[in-house]
Amino acid sequence: MRYSGRNLSEGAVGLLAKCCVAVVAFLLIAINAAVAEPKRVVVLHSYSQNSKPWSEYSKAFRQELERRSHWPLVIQDFSVVTAFADEEETELKFAQYLSALFSRNSPDLIVAFGAPAAAFVQRYRNGLLPATPMLLTAVDQRRVQQTTLTENDTVVAVRLNIPKLFANILDVLPNTRTVAVVIGNSPNERFWGEEMQRELEPLKDRVKILFYNDLSFQDILKRAASLSQNSAIFWVQPQVDATGAVHEGEQALKMLHAVANAPIFSHDDAYFGGEIVGGPMTSVSAGAIKASEVAVRILGGEKPADIRTPALEYGPAKFDWRQLQRWNISENRLPPASEIYFREPPIWEKYRWQVGLACAVLLLQALLITGLLYEARRRRYAEVQARQRMSELAHINRHSMAGELTASITHELGQPLGAILTNAESAELMLKSSAPDMDEIRQIVAEIRRDDERASEVISRLRSLLKKAPSERKDLDLNELVSETVDLLSGLAVARGVDLNSSTSSMSLPISGDRIQLQQVLINLVVNAMEAVSNSPSGVRRISVWTARIENSAEVSVADSGSGILLDRFKEVFEPFFSTKPNGMGMGLSIARSIVEAHHGRISAKNRVEGGAIFWVRLPLA
Fold first, then answer.
1. What single string gives the DSSP state of each residue in 263-303?
2. Residue 578 pLDDT more than 90?
3. How much is the pTM?
4. CATH of domain 472-622
């Protein structure tokens, strides 16, 4: 049988593909098996799982380790309870307990947090799972016995720079004279009390340092509440006070902060975020990150002794803005590159949208108010201009009336002047007689004076009607005003053959207004009525004027016997430039309405049932 080269090639490729798939599947199964195997980590706490600051390191370490780990983790926690006091026998039994617990299933890593836990595992390293990798962390490098470290041990330590911590207090508060150190009385705390006294010896001439390690916590609170002026407090959480009482968590620091009359500083940012002013501090996050990195490397197979980590130094100094404000500490006193936390943002940043919206609303209101004020000013200006123009039109209207009143004025003046001439001639003849009758002459002179006053009054009325003067409001009697106007127009009525009669109310009608303007309204109405009756269908030329009191108003009515107002013209009768006269300007009734409304009154018109029209003006009583 013969095979082509093409068939051989296809067979080889197929076989090779199957082999690759098998290899990949085997590798995936192996990897999954390896990944599925969890890593067991034992965590030893110096005091308890809630004791600060190590509790914060432990929480942060666990979170970082779980985030970085490539394997499932089983983490077990134990507390070195013998850290509260020197109890070697109990401590030995605890070490034996751990060895027995993990004798058959040794953990992959032991992590000790804090100096007491580190001292415990180093003392019992030979009998405590010596082949198991061990990591010491959250411990000062001075508390680590470097000579007893084995090849399965490594350290992520910190370095507490005590002089730097106290120098920060004196830099921030240069007037400080006393620093009270709040620390406990456990073995670890006694070590640090002695270490602080030794390292702070150079400051003894500048500041007085008080150690509260020999007091109960209640006595510490009393001392902190009565510190002298220019004092500060340095907080090292008293895990065990002089009475043996244990203090864990945040409650002790909160109690101190509530009564202290001086600012509180600390060495570790595990306490930062409420009661501590700030400064250079060891960082929980930095320590947890570095410790988790080392732990992952050990779990991955690296030898602990080969992993060397320099002691962690302080990061940039950080301060609580709220405490700076409380103790009136100027930001200018802080070290360069300091970080300030919890600063309350300005109102603009805190309520940006609300402030922006409020500003927009206020701006809109301001624009609207400005626009309204501008429009109000323009309206007032327009009203003033309109009043001026209306006043000028009214003055022109009065001049045009004067022409129509010529016959009336001639009649009014002709009678007294003719009487004056007759009486003067009679008096002259009587004076030429030999025995003049003096009583009769005196009577003639009195009549001459009366006729002269009458003529003068007519001229005065005409001058008042024609003069151009600003509006002047005075108290008037509408009855008198109507009688005076009717008298003025009586001559014109006679000349046109119109029966003009008037009737005034028996009650006084006091009003407030401009006499000339109101008289102009009445003249307009009566003269228009004369025009209307000139073409009366019935041939009757009658105009009636009367006054009345209607509630709180004074009313004058002008009725005529003319043809009335066309029904489709009622809405236009008071509009400017509307006139039924062939040569009329159409401004009379418009001016009359403006004058009446300026006096807070109302003018109306309607047709009479018996024929003709009636106009009435209603004004408020004074």
1. -EEESBGGGTTTS--EES-B-HHHHHHHHHHHHHHHHTT--
2. no
3. 0.57
4. 3.30.565.10
